[in-house]
Design a protein that fits this description.
single chain; alpha+beta; Diaminopimelate Epimerase, Chain A, domain 1; 2 domains; 18-stranded mixed β-sheet; 7 helices; 23% helix; globular
């Protein structure tokens, strides 16, 4: 294998490199015996690599093209169900179980690949759903629904416009225990404030910081608090948001900054937003059992409830940033 092909996508400023591999590419990649952690760190490095918060290798995807219903408009396509296996690495090369924004970005790349060869009329057509994707992760299957508009370019190719991904998440489960030492350290900084652990496939420590946290505080305290967990943890600081100059809380919105395990300070965290929203509801910072907006440096995520199973749904806008090739022979960790 001479080169790996990647697409770069972002959701709320959380960016990922995605390799959507065909069977022949999977075989060649396996035979290359590349050291994946080192490769991920090299690719994600923002100085010497392409730069990203994480690397996603997607394999075992069905190659069947989407098909429209017989009575569907010429510009419409039926929602297409696909299944794919995801292997995720953080920007430092460590492996990760799951990422909410990473799942959204992966769905956007699958949808972009599927529509690239389809032909439509001029203009854009709004669709309720163009893709139903089941993603096999280390922590089990996750379902992602992607809706968008289609736009036909001058060359006749089809592009997605304003893709919105809905990532179906599990209920927030208990996580590792907070040690007495960590509890005291949190209290020294924030006083007698709420703090809790949660797990949605990866672990999170959520702290009610009461006030907005800047990047420096988030990085310093996030790293210090994470150090208490041998396997690492994502740390989210949340606070009631103010709107229109009011000092009262918005009943459906919180602010959040995040320190991510394996990636450090990032613009957003999808699984963190879900965990934080659920804890904020538990603590009465926002209205329970209603849609919650989580405002992060990279943008806003919406957390709602699935009508069928009551589980949380993460909704984020996604964007394709570019396509890349990485010459593995010249720049692989093995030289």
């Amino acid at each position: 294998m001479e080169a790996l092909r990647f697409a770069k996508h972002q959701a709320l400023g959380n960016d990922f490199l995605i390799a959507l591999m065909q069977p022949d590419e999977e075989t060649a990649f396996a035979e290359s015996q590349l050291k994946l952690p080192a490769l991920a760190a090299q690719l994600c490095d923002r100085s010497s690599g392409i730069g990203a918060d994480g690397l996603i290798l997607a394999t075992d995807m069905s190659t069947t093209q989407p098909s429209a219903a017989p009575d569907a408009p010429e510009t419409a396509s039926a929602a297409t169900v696909r299944q794919v296996r995801m292997t995720l690495f953080n920007s430092d090369g460590s492996s990760a179980e799951v990422s909410g924004n990473g799942l959204a970005c992966l769905a956007n790349e699958v949808a972009r690949t599927l529509v690239s060869s389809m032909e439509f009329c001029e203009g854009a057509e709004a669709l309720d759903s163009i893709l139903e994707l089941t993603v096999d992760t280390v922590d089990g299957a996750r379902r992602v629904t992607l809706s968008a508009e289609f736009a036909t370019t001058e060359s006749g190719s089809v592009e997605l416009v304003d893709p919105l991904a809905e990532v179906h998440m599990p209920d927030v489960a208990p996580g590792p225990n907070v040690t007495a030492e960590l509890d005291e350290q949190i209290s020294t900084v924030f006083g007698d404030t709420q703090r809790a652990i949660g797990n949605v496939g990866n672990p999170h420590l959520v702290i009610n910081a009461v006030r907005p946290m800047n990047a420096r505080e988030t990085a310093d305290l996030g790293a210090a608090f994470e150090a208490h967990f041998p396997s690492g943890i994502n740390v989210e600081f949340i606070w009631r948001t103010e709107h229109d100059g009011s000092t009262s809380a918005a009943p459906s919105s919180i602010g959040m900054s995040v320190w991510e395990r394996g990636a450090g300070l990032t613009q957003a965290c999808g699984t963190g937003a879900v965990t934080a929203a659920m804890r904020a509801q538990d603590w009465g910072l926002v209205t329970a059992n209603e849609e919650t907006t989580v405002e992060m440096p990279g943008g806003e995520a919406t957390i709602s409830t699935d009508d069928d199973d009551g589980h949380p749904i993460l909704s984020v806008w996604v964007e394709h940033l570019g396509d890349y090739e990485w010459p593995v022979r010249e720049r692989s960790p093995d030289g």
